[in-house]
Amino acid sequence: MRAVNPFSSFIVGLTCSVLLASCGGSDNATEETQTEHLGGGETTVNASGHDAFSHASRNMSDSDRIISFNEGNHFFENPWVQGTQSTQARDGLGPYFNSNACQGCHINDGRGHAGDAVLDGIATSDNFNSLLIRVSRSVATEANVANAPDDNVGGQLQHKAVSNVQKESDLSVSYTRKNVSFDDGYTVELRIPQWHMTSHIGEFNSDSVFSARVAPPMIGLGLLELINEDDILNQQDIDDSNNDGISGKANQVWSLEHKKMSLGRFGWKAGQPSLLEQTSGAFLGDMGLTSKFHLEENCHNNQTDCTTAENGNGTNSSDEAYEVTNSTLALVSFYSHHLAVPERRDAYSDQVQQGKLLFVEAGCTACHTESYTTGSDIMQPELSNQVIFPFTDMLLHDMGEDLADFREDNSPVANDVQVEYLATATEWRTPPLWGLGLTKTVDDKATFLHDGRARTIMEAVLWHGGEAETAKNKVLGFNSTQRDALSAFLNDL
Questions:
Q1: CA–CA dist 247, 367 (Å, integer)
Q2: Residue 175 has what DSSP assignment?
């Protein structure tokens, strides 16, 4: 592999002259003054096929940075192998793992999916290729520790293992049905997951909490990292001082890079402070690969066949003392920073703009904040000073018992049990909505919400509870024309 500095220091002058489009119709607006179709600002790409999420920032022009993006894609897309193989640049998989490639979870750089088991428990699915289950105990931990792992299986269930190692668990899911009716009688069928988890290492702790999570889409992540911290923190209303029922809070997490508590930005519960650390954490937790932030294999307690398995650690230099070298980690992080948001297809049509008005009227923007201007970063010139439209406040919100993390018997966990730093069992970070309408185009098996239970966008809306209960009930009052408009708006994002 050619030696490349993926973070070469140079400044690109970016000019951004932006006027925000009105929430009302498009009668008086012109193409020159409307920018909301460019969700990622000048980074936005015109793409709508199955590879819509796989393009570099449109304003990236420096050849070295383009090479770095492509080399990062190589390590993101291609499978890693176990330590006994000769592919030294990508060896060291496992001993426990959930997938052997980043792309195996983030399919076409998009969203993962839950298993498509038959409803009513007739059959179960063990398709966990892009879905994992985190584990924590409902006991107090120190502030700089994400959670207390289960004594036998640790903090994540791995359902795969390299040869000669007993896999940690078997996982499957089945579903029952639940019908939700709109005021006009229109009915949507929802599916309720039942998670089936068998440990091959030892019994789970009685107070262990399980959290099913599908892989989120990769687009626009570098832009989210450049949202000014104050713009996120100023949206908090932890005590609901304005009595609107919305009390978002920021997660505060331990940064392995900076050795201090930092704002959590990434992951379903905002448990990671940066893309670099998110990438390192995924390498370890999902593929069993060590890096400069995680020097030990993901073996736990008495898992002796795991601890004695051959690894991929090199010995030639300090950079080779772990399986994911510093240069590889930087390249994959660079790639993750610069996957571009696709341009919206029909943002200014009357129906889409009417759907946006209904989205606002229902109260959805109380959490799904529409727009920000990113900060400046000399290392990320393409992403700097961009007006973006991610529709997220980056905060944690209580989404209600139905979407709560669960016990081994599938019973929901109370909202006062912390499972990932400050995030409780019922709290989830507001996900960005850009690219939402292209989800099924990128992967027709993709599903929605943190655990993939929702097969459609409308199903995802109807699962909202907790702080979003009022907004959901307003949506349930929409008639057919209004539902179509709301769906048109969400599918255009």
A1: 9
A2: E
Nearest-angstrom CA–CA distance, 128 and 132: 7
Closest CA to 286 of 134, 425, 170: 134
Do 392 and 433 form a contact (C-beta atoms < 8 A)? yes
Do 87 and 105 touch, CB atoms closer than 8 A? no
Please, what's the largest Cα pairwise distance for the chain?
69
Q: Which 3 state secondary structure label does DSSP give 90?
A: helix
Measured CA to CA, the distance from residue 77 to residue 326 in angstroms comes to 18
Q: Which of 142, 165, 441 is nearest to 300 (CA)?
A: 165
Question: How many CA atoms within 13 Å lie on the side-chain side of 400?
Answer: 13
Residue-wise over 282-307: b if at least 16 C-beta within 10 A, else e? bbbbbbbbbbbbbeebbbbeebeebe
pLDDT digits (tens, 9 = 90+) for 126-166: 889 899 999 999 988 888 999 999 999 999 999 999 988 99
For 457, phi then psi, to 5°, come to -65, -40
Backbone angles phi, psi at 283, to 5 degrees: -55, -45
pLDDT in tens, 436-458: 999 999 999 999 999 999 999 99
Q: Are 311 and 92 in contact (CB under 8 A)?
A: yes
